[in-house]
Amino acid sequence: MIWRWGTSPQSDGAAVRLIMQRRNRQLYRVAQSVLNDDAEAEDVVQEAYVRAFTHPVTPSDQRDHFETSR
């Protein structure tokens, strides 16, 4: 993560822009290859950014998600 825990990604516009600049083309290509529709791929990528930046993952979310059964 580029921004510090406890800060909002919405308040760190530079970090959001950097993430989008670095990943936008790759995400679009994946979405377009799956959907075979340019407009739909753009919508999916935009929705992915909205979800990612409005519901950021916390360390406890990651731990809970990747915990394995014993």
TrEMBL record:
<feature type="domain" description="RNA polymerase sigma-70 region 2">
    <location>
        <begin position="21"/>
        <end position="58"/>
    </location>
</feature>
<protein>
    <submittedName>
        <fullName>Sigma-70-like protein</fullName>
    </submittedName>
</protein>
<dbReference type="InterPro" id="IPR007627">
    <property type="entry name" value="RNA_pol_sigma70_r2"/>
</dbReference>
<dbReference type="Pfam" id="PF04542">
    <property type="entry name" value="Sigma70_r2"/>
</dbReference>
<dbReference type="GO" id="GO:0006352">
    <property type="term" value="P:DNA-templated transcription initiation"/>
</dbReference>
<dbReference type="InterPro" id="IPR013325">
    <property type="entry name" value="RNA_pol_sigma_r2"/>
</dbReference>
<dbReference type="GO" id="GO:0003700">
    <property type="term" value="F:DNA-binding transcription factor activity"/>
</dbReference>
